[in-house]
Amino acid sequence: VKAWGAHVTAVCSDDASPLVKKLGADDVIDYRSGNLEEQLKALPLFDFILDNVGGSTEKWALDLLKKWSGATYVTLVTPFLVNMDRLGVADGMLRTGVTIGSKTVKHLCKGVHYRWAFFMPSGPYLDEIAELVESGKIHPVIDQVFSFSEVPEAFLKLEGGHARGKTVINVIDKQ
Length: 175
Fold this sequence. Notes:
It comes from Nothoprocta perdicaria. By secondary structure, the protein is an alpha/beta fold.
């Protein structure tokens, strides 16, 4: 979002703060330094919130958006796979559809847009991202590169959480 000129407020742990600021965040809030909801309420209302935590965050984060201005809340945490595992394909899809439909209407009546993010490959969007990287507007962060033979170690690293960037598997072994 910073690449398009937005003022960015990021929420992370204090030890990630230097990296997040280096990547362009204007404000950084340490989620461990007190009541996160109160800290965010002290700031001006937001035009856009990207939530990758979910859970109880959704209950109060929508109140941080500007009402009736096109403000949008997008969550990366959806019940889609949980519903499918628990209820089966048909019932899981139906339950998910009903949930997103009711939340969308409920929040639209409150003056904000509610969305779930789903990702799929797109050549044109990847081209646009490549242009942003080449122009220096986006800075990819790689935490660690593993060889193909080190895939088990890479998974252990991912399970540990709190990576500072992407974990990469090099499938072409240069000898």
